[in-house]
Amino acid sequence: MSKNTKLPLPSHIHALGVPYQVELVDVIDEVTDDMEPTWGDTTNISRRIRVAAFLDTRRRWSTLWHETLHATLYTIGAQLSDDVEEMIVQSIEHATEQFMREHGASYLKALDTEKD
Ligand SMILES: [Zn+2]
């Protein structure tokens, strides 16, 4: 894993307009079910997203996007079990990554076009 820090994370993101502060932290005191260190977490009350600094650039950004999706589900008031929410977030995260890899440049260009 290379520690490419050429693309630093933003200081904040918006989840459907709601600002969340983004922090890069050394340790998140929580482990996942499979005892792996946690890559990121979101605290909705204080509108804060934390991303683990040990991750490389690619994983930092994918984790930030993952946590942004959690924040977005909170913002719309989705009432989901933890398991279902995680499944939805992971699915959208991976679908977005695949779509952006294949069509991201065109998609961003299309957003900037005037009505045809
Ligand atoms: Zn998650």
What can you tell me about this protein's structure?
The protein has 116 residues and is of the alpha+beta class. It is 42% helix and 18% strand. The chain has helices at 57-75, 82-111, and strands at residues 12-15, 18-25, 40-43, 48-52. Strands 1-2-4-3 form a four-stranded mixed sheet, covered by helices on one side. A hairpin with a 2-residue loop joins strand 1 (12-15) and strand 2. Helix 1 (57-75) packs across helix 2. The longest helix has 30 residues, at 82-111. The radius of gyration is 15 Å and the shape is globular. The mean pLDDT is 91. Bound molecules: zinc ion. Zinc ion is lined by residues 66, 70, 86, 89.
Summarize the structure.
This protein has 116 residues and is α+β, with helices and mostly antiparallel strands. It has helices at 57-75, 82-111; strands at residues 12-15, 18-25, 40-43, 48-52.
Name the descriptors:
single chain; 116 residues; alpha+beta; 4-stranded mixed beta sheet; 2 helices; binds zinc ion
Which parts are unreliable, with pLDDT below 50 for 5 consecutive residues or more? none
Helical run tally: 2
Helix content: 40-55%
Ends apart, CA distance between termini: 44 Å
Percent in strands: 15-25%
Question: How would the blueprint of this fold be written?
Answer:
Blueprint: E1 12-15, E2 18-25, E3 40-43, E4 48-52, H1 57-75, H2 82-111
Parallel strand pairs: 2-4
Antiparallel strand pairs: 1-2, 3-4
The protein binds zinc ion.
